[in-house]
């Protein structure tokens, strides 16, 4: 995967990012089941990473309280932590509901922050998570979401310990002309549609002849698709048309996910239990 990149957007995942994809696709449905570390390393090697980079990624995720380390004799196993399960659940909710009607009330959410340099890591985490909640940046430290996500954003501020450095406001925009100007500042909708189009072109003819190929393809499919919630604010259609290629991309993702899932899971299980 590292060598190939992702045709839909040129994105090359880091080992930690790819481990999170593996955990979300193959491990979280079986939460509570330990996974052999050696198997995870072997899978990352299959996907183009060195053994050293793979082991470092697992160690760093454990330090971030996303993996819990266990030993059985000389073997090391990993379990998903409660924090990891919450992060993966949030991700699945955004990924698998992308493009569906949201039942919006018309309220938008505005968040602003001024986080000191001493809490730089919290600031970086906030930016990543805000994008996943559907926020776009309209200027430094000021973020806008096209629906009421104030509760989720507030919980995020509390989790990161930066509530005192941020503010939240929700309300209903007045005048679509003014809102449209904000939208074009916060999100590049033309670039987003190009991403969707590239995803369709990249995966529409993809096939897998065996379990190994299914694993590689499904992992790349999910890892590529999970970037879309970071870029697609799913704006109300009465304000701006949905990206032209979104519906086709979403349908393709769900179709391939269902077709590849069983074979890909078999390969994952074979490698992570072959001790």
Describe this structure in words.
The chain has 275 residues and is of the alpha+beta class. It is built from eleven helices and seven strands. Strands 5-6-4-7 form a four-stranded antiparallel sheet. Helix 9 crosses helix 11. The two termini are 24 Å apart.
Number of domains: 2
- C-alpha Rg (nearest Å): 20 Å
Which range best describes the helical content: under 10%, 10-25%, 25-40%, 40-55%, 55-70% or over 70%? 40-55%
If classified by CATH, what would the architecture of the largest domain be?
Orthogonal Bundle
Number of DSSP E strands: 7
**Please, what is the average pLDDT?**
88
CATH fold-level assignment of the largest domain: Arc Repressor Mutant, subunit A
What are the SSEs and their pairings?
Layout: H1 15-27, E1 35-36, H2 37-46, H3 51-63, E2 67-72, E3 75-80, H4 82-96, E4 108-113, H5 120-132, E5 136-139, E6 142-145, H6 150-160, E7 166-171, H7 176-186, H8 189-203, H9 211-225, H10 228-231, H11 246-273
Antiparallel strand pairs: 1-3, 2-3, 4-6, 4-7, 5-6
Helix pairs in contact: 2-3, 2-11, 5-6, 8-11, 9-11
């Amino acid at each position: 995967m590292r060598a190939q990149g992702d045709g839909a957007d040129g994105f090359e995942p880091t080992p930690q990012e790819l481990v999170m994809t593996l955990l979300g696709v193959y491990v979280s449905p079986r939460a509570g089941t330990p996974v052999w570390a050696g198997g995870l390393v072997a899978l990352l090697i299959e996907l183009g990473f060195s053994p050293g980079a793979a082991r470092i990624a697992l160690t760093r995720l454990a330090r971030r309280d996303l993996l819990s380390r266990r030993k059985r004799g000389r073997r090391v196993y990993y379990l998903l932590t409660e924090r990891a399960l919450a992060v993966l659940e949030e991700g699945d909710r955004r990924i698998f509901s992308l493009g569906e009607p949201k039942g919006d009330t018309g309220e938008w959410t505005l968040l602003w922050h001024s986080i000191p340099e001493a809490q730089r890591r919290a600031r970086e985490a906030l930016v990543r998570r805000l994008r996943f909640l559907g926020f776009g940046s309209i200027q430094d430290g000021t973020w806008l979401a096209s629906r009421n996500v104030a509760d989720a954003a507030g919980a995020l501020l509390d989790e990161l310990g930066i509530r005192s450095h941020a503010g939240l406001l929700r309300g209903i925009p007045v005048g679509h002309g003014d809102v449209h100007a904000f939208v074009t500042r916060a999100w590049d909708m033309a670039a987003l549609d190009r991403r969707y189009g590239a995803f369709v072109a990249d995966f529409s003819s993809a096939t897998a002849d065996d379990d190994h190929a299914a694993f590689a393809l499904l992992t790349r499919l999910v890892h590529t698709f999970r970037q879309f919630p970071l870029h697609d604010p799913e704006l109300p259609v009465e304000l701006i048309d949905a990206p032209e290629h979104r519906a086709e991309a979403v349908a393709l993702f769900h179709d391939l996910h269902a077709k590849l899932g069983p074979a890909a899971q078999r390969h994952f299980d074979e490698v992570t239990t072959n001790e």
